[in-house]
Design brief:
about 260 residues; alpha/beta; Rossmann fold; 2 domains; 6-stranded mixed sheet; 4-stranded antiparallel sheet; 11 helices; 10 strands; globular; disordered C terminus; transport; Branched-chain amino acid ABC transporter, ATP-binding protein; ATP-binding; P-loop_NTPase
């Protein structure tokens, strides 16, 4: 679904992404792991149009999307979430969801004068959809709370809910488990799995929690120093000497010395 070819992103002399190439298969939940500073979030930002690549190419189902802005990619069904949730804190959780779809009649001045019935009809439909989404995510009890008042895990679920308000095709989740308690983390994992199985969402997940990755992701891609280091099942990744070296600074051949 997504193909990344020899992608580079440089910040001055620092090569955050340094020739990364990978493929994200349609219908998969792909895990992206690696030590801090490996270039994972920068890779996400380049694919999602937040950053312009220095060089390289990104395609989505054969279409070149390299450097397209986020709003264009949004309309193509490519969405991403962030490590820190970006909710509108003064609005209710329901309102946060209702504002996601673009092209609403209420956004046009002419319709606010002469299209009030159409605006009211759209608002009822969006409210019903938002309620359906929150029920799916088991957060209907926070519908009327201000988004700034709910917990970190509930904000992450709310961000996931935003992707359900439009026709998302592929969603990039950046450390969805960061700062989330274990109970809500399992709720998030179950929601991702259901969206994948029941609604055909494709996911790419950056996460440091290996239990979370093991529960959801196949395949898993490991990055280090801006490059793709290895790809396979989590068991294969854990057994890969290059991966161990990237995380621990030593290879399997030296594991006895490390243990000592």
């Amino acid at each position: 679904m997504i193909t990344v070819e020899n992608l580079h992103k440089h910040f001055g002399g620092f090569h955050a992404v340094d020739g990364a190439s990978l493929t994200i298969e349609k219908g998969a939940i792909t895990g992206l792991i690696g030590p801090n500073g490996a270039g994972k979030t920068t890779l996400f930002n380049v694919i999602a149009g937040v950053l312009e690549p220095t060089s390289g190419r990104v395609t989505m189902e054969g279409e070149d999307i390299t450097g397209l802005p986020p709003h264009t990619l949004f309309h193509k069904g490519l969405l991403r979430t962030f490590q820190i949730a970006h909710e509108f804190g003064s609005m209710t959780c329901r309102e946060n969801l209702m504002m996601v779809p673009g092209g609403q009649s209420g956004e046009r001045l002419w319709d606010t004068w002469f299209g009030r019935k159409r605006i009211a009809d759209e608002e009822r439909a969006l409210r019903a959809k938002a309620d359906e989404v929150m029920e799916f995510l088991t957060i209907e009890h926070i519908s009327d709370l201000r988004a700034g008042q709910v917990s970190g895990g509930q904000k992450k679920l709310l961000e996931l809910g935003r992707t359900m308000m439009v026709d998302a095709r592929i969603v990039f989740l950046d450390e969805v488990g960061a700062g989330v308690n274990r109970t809500l983390l399992y709720t998030i994992a179950d929601a991702i799995k259901r969206l994948n199985v029941e609604r055909g969402y494709t996911f790419v997940v950056i996460e440091h929690d290996m239990d979370f990755i093991e529960k959801l992701c196949d395949p898993v891609i490991c990055m280090a120093e801006g490059k793709v280091l290895a790809e396979g099942t989590l068991a294969e990744i854990k057994a890969n000497e290059q991966v161990i070296e990237a995380y621990l600074g030593t290879g399997l051949k030296n594991k006895d010395q490390v243990g000592a």
